[in-house]
Amino acid sequence: MPKDDSVSARSDGPPRIALVGNPNCGKTALFNALTGARQKVANYAGVTVERKEGMFVSPAGTRVKVIDLPGTYSLRARSPDEEVTRDVVLGRRADEAVPEAIVCVVDATRLRLNLRLVLEMKKLGRPVILALNMMDEAESQGIAVDAAELSAALGIPVVPTVAIRKDGIQPLLDQIDRTIQVANSEGMTPTSAPCGWTEPSARDLRDYHAQVEAIMAQAIGRPSRPHLATRRIDRVLLQPATGLFILLALLFLMFQAVFSWARLPMELIDGGLSTVKGLIDAGMADGPLKSLITDGIIGGVGSVVIFLPQILVLFLFIQILEDSGYMARAAFLLDKMMGGVGLHGRAFIPLLSSFACAVPGIMAARTIENRTDRIATIMIAPLMTCSARLPVYTLIIAAFVPQRQVLNGWVGLPGLVLFALYAAGILSGLLIAFVLKRTLLSGAREPLLMELPAYRLPRPHNVLLGLYERARAFLVRAGTTIFALMVVIWALASFPAAPEGATLPAIDYSIAGMIGHFLEPLLAPIGFNWEIAVALVPGMAAREVAVGVLGTVYALSDSGDSMRNSLAGLLAHSWSLPTALSFLTWYVFAPQCIATLSVVRRELNSYWWPMAMFFGLTTLAYGASFVTFRVASSLIGS
Amino acid sequence: MVQTILVVVLVAAAAGWIGWRMWRWASALLGRKRSGGCPGCGGCGGGSAEPGKVHPPR
């Protein structure tokens, strides 16, 4: 790594400012407040792992480009997310001009830690503005921050802000205007400004520390009302025995709620789809378009959309846990268990993000410094049950697991089975990590160092916004990719028509039928019929498409009053229990998501790892389904 | 006849859309594009998997 960097990238177009700061100090909240974007914010370190770009028009009418960057404690980058920040700030990215000014965002309640990075930024020799964020929390803790004194001590403008409430944004915009004007009038463009950053030595760090102490004494008071609630709650939640029990109880409650809370809205959607289907049946002449709408679109897309309430209930829990500050605690609680299989404690958050979708989960692994730890985390991320698998699981559970209360009526059996499926993914992931860390990815284990944020009450606005974004993304996907796939699948399942005198259902003679029958011998040993074979191929695009394809394939051979009940009922009638168990087992392991493989290639810059992931997990899925099917068949008969 | 024409148009458009998506995914897999690997899960607020995305001014 070079010791000195000179800025060479040239900036064309609007002025650019970069948001830089320690993790979890509110950079993305400020980015959202400035640009009107809706980037994800949460109460733990490592939410942002990639640069984000937005624009705003300043009060003086200047279009300004703003870049949100991952949090870092220093430009001495230790992990890939910190390297993103270092490279953008120092202008090391070939495709990116260096920012004209830097807005340093600090947490006003943690200035002793945050100010060191500000001092490092000042050494760059570029205009720096300090956004003194979370001033509301500093005030509630009785921390007296003298912004004018702090500005004088640092020699840079200081603007107090509360980014999540958009307080202080106007003064910050005014200050950005003034800074840009001064930089322009002095001809201080990034190409002419010297870059004085060198990697800090131990002596530099001691100097920074001494300077911070002097500034703290000069401008910052001690908290007169320190928050004791966080410490009191942590005494219970971080205690190994009670903490783990509470964590397990929370997860268990979440899976029970996925079934019980979502039942009514699911029934409403189901009823609505049945009504629409009935109206089309009654009012439209028979023909290919009617079949496409009822069997392909309502039968296929409808059978996926119906699961939206369950996905939203799952994300409601995740969002509340993320906003409260509990996530970092869960990482600490599970650090010992993660360490037991060779994973780093920081792997917890990427793995937990993978329950939403493996793609952001794999990207979140950038916060892990050690490459072998990062690869191990990425390789097992697809085993965490993503939300796209939820419709598959709940459909099969609805078809084969009776709605019964167990454990003295305290627990619903469907929720218990869902919990077991999630647990199966987690346990198999840990087992694979254990094997990888003792073979291909062996290395010493590094200790977990992570800031524990203060507990905060989740903001209803943020929770609702998060749910809205999830719902929107799900419906957009249902209305685009899944819709298009269902139309194509319907066509493949409808043409060519059955020949005269055919004895089998028409779909058996279609292209989809031919493909399914061609693949059937390969999948017969694991108990899959040709309809399942047809569903697995488009599942590469999105896992939940398998449900839609089954909906379309079975709708073309049957018609029922209620979409979900008819599909679940048809599956219960057409599949044996060993086949259903084998199908569930396949989906615990199956890596058939091309977006996941793409992001693995990009993150690890290698073709080897995505290939190993695809072939390794496919072999595992086939082997585990084979064992499940054979054992279940021998025990309960096929 | 009208139904048949509409179905042909719809199926052709859907096949085109899928072809375009597959090309994007294949490009991402081969490393030719930085974006394209986004499955649209919404978990990032619309940006994590799309490094080049620019949010317009509001």
UniProtKB/TrEMBL annotation, chain A:
Residue ranges that the Swiss-Prot or TrEMBL entry lists as coiled coil: none
The keyword DNA-binding belongs to this UniProt entry's keyword annotation: no
Domain of life (superkingdom): Bacteria
Protein's membrane topology: Multi-pass membrane protein
UniProt KW keywords: Cell inner membrane, Cell membrane, GTP-binding, Ion transport, Iron, Iron transport, Magnesium, Membrane, Metal-binding, Nucleotide-binding, Transmembrane, Transmembrane helix, Transport
TM helices/strands, residue ranges: 237-259, 297-321, 375-401, 413-436, 474-493, 568-589, 609-632
Domain FeoB-type G: 14-182
Gene Ontology CC terms, in alphabetical order: plasma membrane
Residues the record lists as binding Mg(2+): 32-33, 35-36
One MF term in the entry's GO annotations: GTP binding
UniProt-listed InterPro entries: Fe2_transport_prot-B, Fe2_transport_prot_B_C, FeoB_GTPase, G_FEOB_dom, Gate_dom, GTP-bd, P-loop_NTPase
Cell compartment(s), UniProt: Cell inner membrane
Binding positions for GTP per the UniProt entry: 21-28, 46-50, 68-71, 133-136
Keyword Phosphoprotein: no
Entry similarity comment: Belongs to the TRAFAC class TrmE-Era-EngA-EngB-Septin-like GTPase superfamily. FeoB GTPase (TC 9.A.8) family.
Listed PANTHER family: FE(2+) TRANSPORTER FEOB, FERROUS IRON TRANSPORT PROTEIN B
Physiological role: Probable transporter of a GTP-driven Fe(2+) uptake system.
Name of this chain's protein: Ferrous iron transport protein B
Organism: Magnetospirillum molischianum DSM 120
